[in-house]
Please model this.
Amino acid sequence: MPIFERSVEVAAPVADVFAFHLDTRNVPRITPPQQEVLEIVGEFPLVVGAVVDMKIRQAPVPTAQPWRIRVTAIEPPTLIRDEVVDNEMFTRFVHTHRFEELGPELTRLTDHIDWDMSSRMLAGMAKGIIEKTFAGRQDRTRDLLGGGAAGA
Model:
């Protein structure tokens, strides 16, 4: 199964970065321009077992794709894990957010995604989208919460 992992340093306390990610309604604030989040329905802040439904449009595709995630682990303030359920394209998509305190005002945010698709033909395209999307989300998180600390 393919794995994506990338980290960025955010000039903000670990508790603040963790709390920001506990509210999935923040996703549109960090979503790169090639995607549009049309809908988010769920329970916030997140709790283990919570289900969140989203509709996301990925350019240049004109229709939105539904995403349903279930939160499978929360370990304050170091980890949030969610898994995509009921998705037509992905047979597996497990997203682990890790938060590591590097100092009182510095956090390393790591996104680790273990994913797979039933279509080998689309997997190459999906890999590129995942890499671009999560690099963009991390950079926007860094800029929004920490004012532009260096990436890792």
The beta strands are 3-10, 35-41, 51-58, 65-75, 79-85, 90-103, 106-117.
